[in-house]
Sequence to fold (138 residues):
Amino acid sequence: MKRKKSLFVLSISVLMLITFISSCSKGGDTTTTNPTNPGTGGTGGTNECATLTSGQAGPLYTAVKSLLNANCSSCHTGSNGTGGKDLTTDCNIVLSKDRIKARAVDGSPSFMPQGGQLSAGDKKKITDWVNAGGRFSD
Fold:
């Protein structure tokens, strides 16, 4: 009898653990920076990313991506990027344009990158790109 009770308790514990783990999935999370469901600035999804980054990258976008790679990618890389932001993929950069401008240009709530503010020229590149529409093709 004691063995049956232990088996029952173990079964219930395993079911509770499975339920807990499955409730932590990103299925409904709209703030993730995963390129398959970026969320920031749009509904996300692979099709949205394909649409956002189709064609050739424009000169304004290319300049911004270059400065993000040089100044931001050491912290904002991959699915565990600092602040939940991966700024190494085209889709995430386009979807995060407003946040990039707010942090790197406007300093709201504080300036990025942490090591020191961008130069006036780099801030202008971001501002020009966002003002032009902040698209991949800009």
About this structure: Residues 23-44 have pLDDT under 50 and may be disordered. Residues 78 and 86 are 5 Å apart (CA to CA). Residues 2-23 form the longest helix (22 residues). DSSP finds six helices and no strands in the chain.
